[in-house]
Amino acid sequence: MDTDTIALDEKTLEAERRSYHSFFDVHVVRTEDGYILIEEGDYGELPMHLIDDIVYTATGKMDDEY
């Protein structure tokens, strides 16, 4: 496994963990420097340049209905 694959795996797991505490989808986005997490609720509508670089999405799992 190369370091890029390990970094992606780590961010994917982090996105999944974070999604349990969010109403919004959490995206793993590839950048020139590696991978970052972006939660849709933080930014509203995502710009197209970010959407094009999404490599993984964890669906927000919080639900406000009882």
3D architecture notes:
With 66 residues, the chain is of the alpha+beta class. It has three helices and three strands. Strands 2-1-3 form a three-stranded antiparallel beta sheet. The longest helix has 17 residues, at 3-19.
Care to give the gist of this entry?
The chain has about 70 residues and is an alpha+beta fold. It has helices at about 5-20, 40-45, 50, and strands at about 25-30, 35-40, 55-60.
List the helices and strands and how they pair.
Layout: H1 3-19, E1 26-31, E2 34-39, H2 40-43, H3 48-51, E3 54-58
Antiparallel strand pairs: 1-2, 1-3
The end-to-end span amounts to: 43 Å
In total, the number of domains comes to: 1
Mean pLDDT: 90
* Overall shape: flat
The number of helical elements comes to 3
H/E element sequence: HEEHHE
Low-confidence stretches: none
Residues in helix, %: 25-40%
- Radius of gyration from CA coordinates: 12 Å
Q: What summary fits the major beta sheet?
A: 3 strands, antiparallel
* Spatial sequence of strands, sheet with the most strands: 2-1-3
Structural class: alpha+beta
Total strand count, please?
3
